[in-house]
Amino acid sequence: MQAVTILGSTGSIGVSTLNVLAQHPDKYRVVALTANHSVDSLYEQCQQFQPDIAVMLDVPSADLLATKLKTAGLRTQVLSGARALEQVAASDGTDYVVAAIVGAAGLLPTLAAARAGKKILLANKEALVMSGGLFMREVEANGATLLPVDSEHNAIWQCLPVGKQQQYHYDGKGVRRIMLTASGGPFRDFDLADLEHVTPEQAVAHPNWSMGQKISVDSATMMNKGLEVIEAHWLFGLPSQKIDVVLHRQSIIHSMVDYVDGSVLAQMGNPDMRTPIANALAWPERIDSGVEPLDLISVGRLDFAAADHQHFPCLRLAYQALDAGGTSTAILNAANEVAVAAFLKKQIKFTEIPRTIENVLSRMTPNDGATIEQILADDTQARVLAKEFIK
Ligand code: NAD
Ligand code: MG
Q1: Number of domains in the chain
Q2: Domain span holding position 166
Q3: Which of 149, 190, 283, 316 could form a disulfide with 194 if both were Cys (CB 3.0 to 4.6 A apart)?
Q4: Which tens digits make up the pLDDT trace of 53-96?
């Protein structure tokens, strides 16, 4: 039996993970679940999976959850606060940690899992975007295993030489480049001028995937793909010039590896996160995920196009931040989180998201990001500057 902890179990990735785990009660046991403040969802998950521990970031929510569980006669222990997230992520009682908290809030608990040498199912790409070099050093120094759950990175992982995926350094090893596919989101066919007036409701209605709000807006601006370029740089040890983005509207090919001998390997499947989750969980074996078999006849055709940096300025900003190095990508991420939250609250227009990020990047001098304190300091300052600019 493998013990599994899910950080962010009530979100889109958390729920998909529990769906896969429920299909394999003989293989996996849920030992800890965590959420921000959604008491009812976490309570229902505790009833079904009976974890040893449930953590809520929010203290009043944790008290409420504890009362409900006690009344129902369940023995799950309830903890609260950010330190408790790190504690369950590093606990001796867990083998796998699913990093599925959204945004910068996921960094410290995911880093704690790396330092404790866990097998990490990484969905929380922002953790790697913020702390890439430091995070990968901790993974390697502590014998942790990073299993990519982001569908593109999981696809690349599957297309890398079997048994060598964990080497993390692919530059100069026969890989010419990798190609991350992108659906282009809900606004791929909009004129630039029309983007001024799109609403949060339109932005979160993704054509191919059902996801949390923040990543849905990131998909609409294509900052999501930009964050994924940075994530791929750290996961696979490739320079930005060897990481391309290809528009592929059907989301059937989830990414590709182009080798120097001319072979291009692609991983395909229906757009359902249970596939990369099941792949990462069972790796190097395979388990059933509950996903429908791919019917290529009904898909009919696969289209590809170049990703236009003028249409998607966030993609350009992400490449620039990656090339600038140090805490530039942490600054990019923080400014993006503030801008996306402001857009969702209708405080700024969709097109002001990249403007905010560009402004913050131009006003800060990144540091080398060698310590977590340096990274968090620039994250904090970028948030202050982004809020100031928005005001
Ligand atoms: P979501 O908003 O649906 O869920 C987020 C989860 O994190 C919830 O359980 C929530 O309670 C918890 N959370 C939120 N803020 C928190 C905080 N401050 N402290 C502690 N917990 C907090 O998000 P999601 O769509 O599941 O995405 C999660 C992560 O996975 C993101 O980093 C996203 O980029 C990545 N990802 C998601 C998908 C997808 O299909 N949804 C695909 C690839 C990668
Ligand atoms: Mg992705």
Answers
A1: 3
A2: 150-189+200-272+296-309
A3: 190
A4: 999 999 999 999 999 999 999 999 999 999 999 999 999 999 99
